[in-house]
Amino acid sequence: MIDCGADWLSRLRRIDPTAIVLTHAHGDHASGLAHGSPCPVFGTPETLALIARFSLAEARAVEPRRPFSIGMIGFEAFPVEHSLRAPAVGYRVTAGSAALFYVPDLAALRDPAAALHGVDLYIGDGATVTRSMVRRHGRDVIGHATVGVQLAWCREQGVCRAIFTHCGSEIVRSDARVIGAAIATLGQEQGVEASVAYDGQRLAFS
User: What domains appear along the chain, each with residue ranges and CATH number?
Assistant: First the structure.
């Protein structure tokens, strides 16, 4: 399981995950662990420090750009720009010859060539479709990159499919068919098959 937001509080033991991997420590990504975890939790040292008050079964530190495995699934964390208080990463996830990149919150991807090389699917930040939510704090950028900007990264790195999750008001307050068509059109302009994630969605890789 990747991330465990506050809406998962008290639900973990019903699904009984074998491991939880965190992208960052914001409450909508980590506060589902406030009552503890039934399995090991993986996160960067900064993320684990920010949730140290939680009674985790086992905390395992993840070092950016140092691959690790959970069972037969490979992970590699890539630092991204998003928040100064809760530093975030995206994960390159591999199984056999299939690879995806998962990053639910980001303002900028520091090394898109390394993160997205050979990736079959990009699962990205759906907080905003066209309206910029990126702000500058000195040399740092914080907030959320638009769907359009992320699709451009995919085009530049040869990623042919993208799905957007962790959706903001531009998506959730719109008619599903209308916004779905708009994102598909943005993807077509970049040569990328683009869509919005939905609850219970399952993906098959060959």
Answer: 1-63 (no CATH), 71-200 (3.60.15.10)
